């Protein structure tokens, strides 16, 4: 038990702590996440103002009919910046998660299917990577490669890989000795065939659930990296970056910080709800089948 | 195998892990473009190849990386972590000083989170799905959904900005005494506490709900033991095991999360030192501080496992 807790490492505080879900969770979570994905896609076209334009006569104005979320110290429209800023966070989180899932699933499948020395070596390697606090590992990667959106994605992928690999590996081990796998072995199918055509199609549910858990943590990691100045770079109106840049104006113009911070929180809540809903849905589906 | 054997095995594993970590860090840093000699000489390095070569020899950079790694490692074993380029001072005392600052945040946060999570978890489990449970769930879940820098910014806005009770940044403050430290540490500690509270609370809650189903609890209730005695004396003792482990792991997590909290409050701890090393591209400092924090994380995890084994004798024979 203790080792199992250690295995999931630093990400743990955010994973187990989830509310028992309700049927509406999937819907509400889906709507929130869908909204943010939409903003990420078409943000610059639906924002009321250009996110970079200085409104010289309206600096640090409180929210009003003209500027719904107020303006910052240069007179830039906060609402537009929040809308346009969705893109970097959503992209970093989704791409980082995808990268981690891809690499982790591949390693987990190979490790679980081949077993023996390969399994031992790969898993010990994953253990080493996991013995870093995740934010620290991400920092190490961006420290070497330089702070940018692409490098933040890479660092999130690297942080996630061992955690996904463990989950996929144990799910693969669960299929060991299943009749359809043995049949494929007896037919003389190659390892590649068995891994991708026999094992992988049966492992989608755990991979999807893991992906949702990861996504919530990826949002957190990417906004944190941006906040530290090591993710999205200026002049991108990224949320984490904005909260950091406007820190000195927190008291004078709280709306410049509160709205991007609120967007971050709403996105994380949405992803958590979506993950919980999806997990319940998959469990329910499985129960119906059996 | 007894507890001693278990601990010895885990410590052996820790040494291997630390070696692997140090290898990984120095391997990754090897990929960094440019080296320490260029850092020191700056733009000047471009022009004077001779000086650069001499500096490389002086810093031992002409050696292959495995030789440099071994030199570094033997230094670490002897307590010498090298010199910081940006600060031009030995790294080891610097790390110890900063660790002291960071522990002043992490230890109180851990203690408060521990106490609060047990009380909140028991209260929530006393009536599952009751109004108190829902309220506690809502608060703890909000806590998980707020990144540390958002929680920190909100606390600054309320307590430093609106109420003007506490300072918003720690770095500029000078002073001594308990009252001074309380003012300086209150908000950062509150932020760290809120970040780690949720998980421990929910663990206590679910573990309590599980234990409350046990026959001996029903016996206690039926023989007329007051409800709070049943909760805090009979049930809590058995429900506490997972919470203790979670808290110990939380400490490890805090070592990572503290980077953000220290940045929010401009607090001069280990986390800000790591960020400083990244910004300054101070390779020796970066390597040493990363290794230092990662070691702390591993040791915290080890302590968590040992505490668990102490409390739960079954695990030792696993």
Features:
heterodimer; A: 290 residues; mainly alpha; 12 helices; disordered N terminus; B: 318 residues; two-stranded antiparallel sheet; 13 helices; 79% helix
Give the spatial strand order of the biggest sheet of chain B: 1-2
The helical percent of chain A reads over 70%
- What structural class do you assign from the helix and strand content of chain A? mainly alpha
**What oligomeric state do these chains adopt?**
heterodimer
Q: Ends of chain B: how far apart?
A: 9 Å
Distance between the termini of chain A: 28 Å
**Helix and strand sequence of chain A:** HHHHHHHHHHHH
What do you see in this structure?
The complex is a heterodimer of chains A (290) and B (318). Helix content of chain A is 72%, strand content 0%. Chain A has helices at residues 2-8, 12-15, 24-46, 78-114, 116-130, 134-145, 149-175, 179-186, 191-199, 204-227, 239-245, 255-289. The longest helix of chain A is centred in the first third of the chain and has 37 residues, at 78-114. The two termini of chain A are 28 Å apart. By secondary structure, chain B is mainly α. Chain B has a two-stranded antiparallel ribbon. In chain B, a hairpin with a 4-residue loop joins strand 1 (83-84) and strand 2 (89-90). In chain B, helix 10 (215-222) packs across helix 11. Classes of the chains: A mainly alpha (290), B mainly alpha (318). Chains A and B meet through helix 1, helix 2, helix 5, helix 6 and helix 10 of A and helix 1, helix 7, helix 8, helix 9 and helix 11 of B.
Quick recap:
The complex is a heterodimer of chains A (290) and B (318). With 290 residues, chain A is mainly α. Chain A is 72% helix and 0% strand.
Topology:
The complex is a heterodimer of chains A (290) and B (318).
Chain A: H1 2-8, H2 12-15, H3 24-46, H4 78-114, H5 116-130, H6 134-145, H7 149-175, H8 179-186, H9 191-199, H10 204-227, H11 239-245, H12 255-289
Helix pairs in contact in A: 3-4, 3-12, 4-5, 4-7, 4-10, 4-12, 5-7, 6-7, 7-10, 8-9, 10-11, 10-12, 11-12
Chain B: H1 3-30, H2 36-41, H3 44-47, H4 49-59, H5 65-77, E1 83-84, E2 89-90, H6 91-126, H7 131-145, H8 148-162, H9 177-212, H10 215-222, H11 227-264, H12 270-280, H13 283-311
Antiparallel strand pairs in B: 1-2
Helix pairs in contact in B: 1-13, 6-7, 6-9, 6-11, 7-9, 8-9, 8-11, 9-11, 10-11, 11-12, 11-13, 12-13
